[in-house]
Amino acid sequence: xxxLIMRADPLVRLKKSRFRREFGLSEFEKGKxxxxxxxxxxxxxxxxxxxxxxxxxxxxxxxxxxxxxxFKAMHATxxxxxxxxxxxxxxxYWRQLEEQDIxxxxxLIYRWIRKQLLS
Length: 119
Description:
It is globular and about 40 Å long. Helix 6 (69-76) crosses helix 8 (99-118). It has one domain. 58% of the residues lie in helices and 0% in strands. By secondary structure, the chain is mostly helical.
């Protein structure tokens, strides 16, 4: 018999963390994203993920809190460093990110930003 294991939506689980809940887009950032379009913002997302998360030896200091809505989204979704990725999403920090990991992180960031724009 096939048993399906349903995992909770990571964004729902992350809402339980006081630290992760504190992050949100400012009205200015929301306006800028609406003006330019979310696809414009997300165009550079993969490059940011690769740049910030490729080197596990720099873990913990690589993602700033300000300067780009993607950075806020990375902190809010616990995709800001490799240790957070492992703790919250079970993506091992001792190996290189795979394409499916990067796609998962991009999707998580996209969904968080979409929710922010709707709030």
